[in-house]
Design goal:
- By secondary structure, the chain is mainly α.
- It has one domain.
- Helix content is 51%, strand content 0%.
- It is built from 3 helices and no strands.
- The protein starts with a helix and ends in a 15-residue tail after the last helix.
């Protein structure tokens, strides 16, 4: 995993736990054959592809917020 990609991705998703979850789920998808959402001229590991997708805004996520009881 490239440090520069990790630093840039942390600017997009500042909570490290959320970033880890988003990237790890995307890495699983890539390993199961889904196509990358970013293009690269160099060979990247799935972790780097997922980080680049976060940096470029190609991956969206939503946090679960339970409805409060009234």
């Amino acid at each position: 995993m490239r440090d520069e990609y990790l630093i840039e991705a942390q600017k997009v998703i500042d909570d490290p736990n959320i970033l880890i979850n988003v990237v790890s789920r995307r890495v699983k998808q890539l390993k199961y054959g889904m196509k990358p959402l970013v293009e690269s001229l160099e060979k990247l590991e799935p972790e780097d592809i997922a980080l680049r997708e976060v940096i470029e805004g190609k991956i969206d996520f939503e946090l679960y917020r339970p409805e409060s009881e009234a």
